[in-house]
Amino acid sequence: MENLLRAALIDWLRSDPQLASLNAVEEESPLTASVPWLGIAASAAADWGTKERAGREVRIAIELVTRGDDPAADAALSRSIEQRIQSLPSAQPEFAVVTIRFIRSRAERRAGNLRALLLEYRFRLLANLTE
């Protein structure tokens, strides 16, 4: 389910018109895209199933990389990303999203006037029942 969630989340983020200013939205850090870009930095999954249904608790860290001097310049963009993640539809083809919770964020300034924002979320998923 972890890989299915990653793919669904990337597709969901890519389809948001509010995020059209991003040069890339990728499952991993893009190698050739110029900033700003968004990518999944890491994910990990643990069992979260029941007797009747398989389930996973998946933690995903999303990284936004931009360029600039002002730490507040990307506030609107980061809010749009957070809102889009929280609005991921619960009904997915192979699983249901039971909960989405923000865990933590970390911001840093990097060499070359780059800025990075890491957003970590916890998703609890249950496999869809098959008949």
List keywords for this structure.
alpha+beta; STM4215-like; 5 strands
What's the CATH first level? Alpha Beta
Order of helices and strands: HEEEHEE
Q: Which secondary-structure class do the elements indicate?
A: alpha+beta
CATH hierarchy: architecture: 2-Layer Sandwich
Residue stretches low in confidence (pLDDT < 50, at least 5 long) are: none
Average residue pLDDT: 95
Q: What is the alpha-carbon Rg in Å? A: 16 Å
What is the count of helical runs?
A: 2
Q: Measure the end-to-end span.
A: 19 Å
What does this structure look like?
With 131 residues, the protein is α+β, with helices and mostly antiparallel strands. It has one domain: STM4215-like (2-Layer Sandwich), CATH 3.30.2000. The chain is built from two helices and five strands, in the order αβββαββ. The protein has a five-stranded mixed sheet, with helices on one face.
